[in-house]
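B., you asked whether I could sanity-check this one before it goes into the benchmark set. Here's the sequence:
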Amino acid sequence: MTPATTSPDPQLPPGLGWGIKRSFIDYINSLPDASVSAIDGAARDDAGLFRFAPDRSEYDVESGTGILRFRGDARLSGHHGMMFVRLLDPWVVLTGGRGILSISTGEDAGQDRTAVAVLRAGAPVREADGSLTWSGVEVAITDEGSDLFDGQYAAGQPMDPLFIRVPAGAVP
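And here's what the prediction gave me:
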């Protein structure tokens, strides 16, 4: 299996791909009662990345600002329910190559968000088909992200990189 820290192929599928953190996934997988699920637009690919389907986005290439929305529900649990991580409908808000990854809390029709990571994204590449891609986006956990992982990762700690492909027509 390809490590989750690398993109599985040169042509990224549409959406957001994130391996979270390899050591965390390995730990979950080692638990006798481990449960990993991905539904409602989320899936797990052969490289171990969680994939979230693209949703409506607004992104201005000129200014490097906008919001990229994705949908899906990924859940990881173990220790008889004492450990539970849910990544629901992630959004990436970008401003000049920097960004915030947030997830829905499930409240307020998805508008109530938790900022789980800060991103260093750089400029996207416009593919021949018109899609925009960001490869190897650097991810560092926030205080709220640390809480999501029950304090296992301190704020500022690097996580696995993100991979994003927004299809042509999904952004102006």
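One thing to flag: The mean pLDDT is 89. Otherwise nothing jumped out at me.
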